């Protein structure tokens, strides 16, 4: 009897898996963008052991995700325990306001006291249409989806406009990462060692990996059309 129940359960699981929409899964976890970035990194580095390199690459992404999740869990736990006594609440408030303890929304780095002292919060006005476009772009990016509402609002406020013409180089392979970009209007192409890898269109994003890992650009990005971009710089990414 027990074996029959297990068999029925197994068949139900199989049917559920068969009925699942693969495209919905790919969209939910932004698999295409993740794989695209991994291929760009692989083409740029051209390691002798590509499988080992990819294992380490995805391991780093997973660690960043875990660190962010643990950080959010710690904050929630601290907020819950703070209500126990007035003294503990005061300590927790002080701790939550200590800048060095907060990590960037899209960076694994911890910023310094000097960076905090010199940073001035940016608020760049945007119309409703632009805010909707940025929101859609964030939902299409696995890393940005992990931002909480406060981080999301701060990043939206700080993003600045950049207009590029056809053929303009937006970033060069090997350069130090400065900005992360969201495409509002237009299309760009991604090149690795001069070879075409992919195109990115409206609501697409690029440039975040150099900010996350603190490494040089893994690819060159060139405008295929006149583009309207929204960008966020490295310091802002660190300080959110």
Automatic annotation (TrEMBL):
<dbReference type="GO" id="GO:0005952">
    <property type="term" value="C:cAMP-dependent protein kinase complex"/>
</dbReference>
<keyword id="KW-0114">cAMP</keyword>
<dbReference type="GO" id="GO:0005829">
    <property type="term" value="C:cytosol"/>
</dbReference>
<dbReference type="InterPro" id="IPR003117">
    <property type="entry name" value="cAMP_dep_PK_reg_su_I/II_a/b"/>
</dbReference>
<keyword id="KW-0547">Nucleotide-binding</keyword>
<keyword id="KW-0677">Repeat</keyword>
<dbReference type="Pfam" id="PF00027">
    <property type="entry name" value="cNMP_binding"/>
</dbReference>
<dbReference type="InterPro" id="IPR050503">
    <property type="entry name" value="cAMP-dep_PK_reg_su-like"/>
</dbReference>
<keyword id="KW-0116">cAMP-binding</keyword>
<dbReference type="InterPro" id="IPR018490">
    <property type="entry name" value="cNMP-bd_dom_sf"/>
</dbReference>
<comment type="similarity">
    <text>Belongs to the cAMP-dependent kinase regulatory chain family.</text>
</comment>
<dbReference type="GO" id="GO:0030552">
    <property type="term" value="F:cAMP binding"/>
</dbReference>
<protein>
    <recommendedName>
        <fullName>Cyclic nucleotide-binding domain-containing protein</fullName>
    </recommendedName>
</protein>
<keyword id="KW-0597">Phosphoprotein</keyword>
<feature type="region of interest" description="Disordered">
    <location>
        <begin position="1"/>
        <end position="21"/>
    </location>
</feature>
<feature type="region of interest" description="Disordered">
    <location>
        <begin position="69"/>
        <end position="104"/>
    </location>
</feature>
<feature type="compositionally biased region" description="Low complexity">
    <location>
        <begin position="69"/>
        <end position="83"/>
    </location>
</feature>
<dbReference type="GO" id="GO:0034236">
    <property type="term" value="F:protein kinase A catalytic subunit binding"/>
</dbReference>
<dbReference type="GO" id="GO:0004862">
    <property type="term" value="F:cAMP-dependent protein kinase inhibitor activity"/>
</dbReference>
<feature type="domain" description="Cyclic nucleotide-binding">
    <location>
        <begin position="143"/>
        <end position="234"/>
    </location>
</feature>
<dbReference type="InterPro" id="IPR000595">
    <property type="entry name" value="cNMP-bd_dom"/>
</dbReference>
<dbReference type="InterPro" id="IPR018488">
    <property type="entry name" value="cNMP-bd_CS"/>
</dbReference>
<dbReference type="Pfam" id="PF02197">
    <property type="entry name" value="RIIa"/>
</dbReference>
<dbReference type="InterPro" id="IPR014710">
    <property type="entry name" value="RmlC-like_jellyroll"/>
</dbReference>
<feature type="compositionally biased region" description="Basic residues">
    <location>
        <begin position="1"/>
        <end position="14"/>
    </location>
</feature>
């Amino acid at each position: 009897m027990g074996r029959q129940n297990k068999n029925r359960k197994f068949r139900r699981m199989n049917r559920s898996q068969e009925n699942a929409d693969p495209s919905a899964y790919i969209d939910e976890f932004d698999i295409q963008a993740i794989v695209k970035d991994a291929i760009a990194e692989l083409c740029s580095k051209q390691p002798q052991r590509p499988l080992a390199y990819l294992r380490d690459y995805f391991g780093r992404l997973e660690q960043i995700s875990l660190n962010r999740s643990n950080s959010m869990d710690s904050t929630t736990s601290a907020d819950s325990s703070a209500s126990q006594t007035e003294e503990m609440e005061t300590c927790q408030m002080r701790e939550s306001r200590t800048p060095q303890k907060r990590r960037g929304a899209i960076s694994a780095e911890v910023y310094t006291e000097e960076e905090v002292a010199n940073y001035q919060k940016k608020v760049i006005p945007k119309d409703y249409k632009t805010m909707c476009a940025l929101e859609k772009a964030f939902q299409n990016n696995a890393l940005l989806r992990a931002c909480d509402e406060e981080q999301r609002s701060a990043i939206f406020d700080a993003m600045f406009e950049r207009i590029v013409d056809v053929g303009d180089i937006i970033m060069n392979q090997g350069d130090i990462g400065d900005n992360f970009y969201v495409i509002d209007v237009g299309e760009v192409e991604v090149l690795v060692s001069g070879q075409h890898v992919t195109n990115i269109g409206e609501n697409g994003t690029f440039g975040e990996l150099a900010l996350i890992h603190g490494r040089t650009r893994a690819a060159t990005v060139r405008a295929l059309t006149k583009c309207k971009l929204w960008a966020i710089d490295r310091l802002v990414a660190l300080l959110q």
